[in-house]
Amino acid sequence: MIGAGIFVFPGLAAGEAGPAASVSFAIGAVIALLVALPTSELATAMPKSGGGYYFVSRGLGALPGAIVGIGLVFGLTFATAFYLVGFGEYVIEILIEIGVIESPGVAVGPIEVVSVVGVLLGVGLTVLSVFGTENTESLQNAVVGLLLAILIVFLTVSGLDLLGVRGESRVSGSFAPEGYTPILTTAALVFTSYLGFAQIATVAEDIVNPDRNLPLSMVGSVVLVGVFYVVTLLITGYTFPSEELLEMGETAIVDVAEEYLGLAGAIAILIGGLLATLSSANASILSASRALYGLSSDRLAPPVAAKVNREYGTPHFALAFVGGTTIVLVAFGRTEVLAEVASFLHLILYGLICVALLVIRRRDPGWYSPSFRCPGYPAVPIIGGLASFALILFMQRLSQILGIIISVIAIGWYLVYARDVNLKDDL
Asked: Would residue 259 count as lying in a domain?
């Protein structure tokens, strides 16, 4: 879960809400925790690779399964596009620093250079994924340790400076210079940062002592990432005024690092930003293609999506669809909209996971025997579901419209293509 968000969001979030953007990330963490506990229970009862989609489709039926399954494919695709645009922003920042270009707004025809860079990387990652996931997984694993090291050093040094442990304290000014409403709108924007926790449920069958280790892993990952984000946003929000942070945009954290750690810090964060956006985009492309493959296996998507390349063993048609859609979104999408639509579609999934737990517990089918029980039931899944759906209300109108359109298309697709499919209790 330590990924692109911590390198891309600070300037956008603190630019809108100031230091109070830290509360936005805390809200996101609380919602993620409320969903993590019901997800953990369902995962120990249905330890299958499909994760949230599997829980909803088997607990609520094929129609809700189609909504969350198709939503998951597009949610991950929008997230991939967001990460690729973030990668482009970091590349442009480097090109500006070394004097290759003068401003970030340079365009090639109707498309900005930022998007061109993102498109090229999207093509490269899609091709790499077709040639075999072992290549991309080794790349993924190599990035995590370096990112953690960079962030720990940055947050430790800048945090001590901010508090005045090394010199004069910089904590001054208003905590919420733009008022408190932006806290909720910013929470809706940045929720993309917490999308990774539910992926742990997809490997439940491989976890030793899942009744203990699965909820600990999910809750622990949310808490750890939440602390990183809250501290980062406090540092960012108190270092520069909101107006300056908005102008700095997606790479504002580079300027924050330079303020506390000099050129070496800025370079380290630049490298971290490139690696984080690359790693996150890579993981999301793989996850989206696997989600589409799963839909096809359940007869909710055409059989071609489940076809595997004979030489490389990868779902090349699913990867081509995800990669092609991502490239279009990168070329013409806005950073904030890409992030919010990804959040919208995942929040629908998380809300329905909570509903699925409530319905399954009430129905009490014979096969349902989880080794972990959600504490605070039924309050936790009820609050988690309501909070997930409520956060959507604070998104900008365009993001809401796009999310609704995708959900309506999913319903229409089910009615036309897969009405006869029955997945409830189909384990």
From this structure: yes
In a domain, 420, yes or no: no
Domain-embedded: residue 422: no
What is the residue range of 145's domain?
5-415
Cβ(354)–Cβ(388) below 8 Å: yes
Tokens for 96?
Answer: 């500006």
CB 15 within 8 A of CB 186: no
Residue with tokens 């120990």: 44
Whether the predicted model's global pTM rises above the 0.85 cut: yes
H-run or E-run covering 112: strand 111-112
**Tokens, residue 24:** 């936005």
Q: What is the pLDDT of residues 334-364, one digit of tens each?
A: 899 999 999 999 999 999 999 999 999 999 8
Would the CA dihedral through 252, 192, 334, 186 be positive or negative? Answer: negative
Which CATH number does the domain housing residue 100 bear?
Answer: 1.20.1740.10
Q: Report the number of distinct structural domains present in the chain.
A: 1
β-partners of residue 369 are none
Strand partners for 107: 112
Measure the CA–CA gap between 210 and 94, rounded to whole angstroms. 44
425, part of any domain:
no
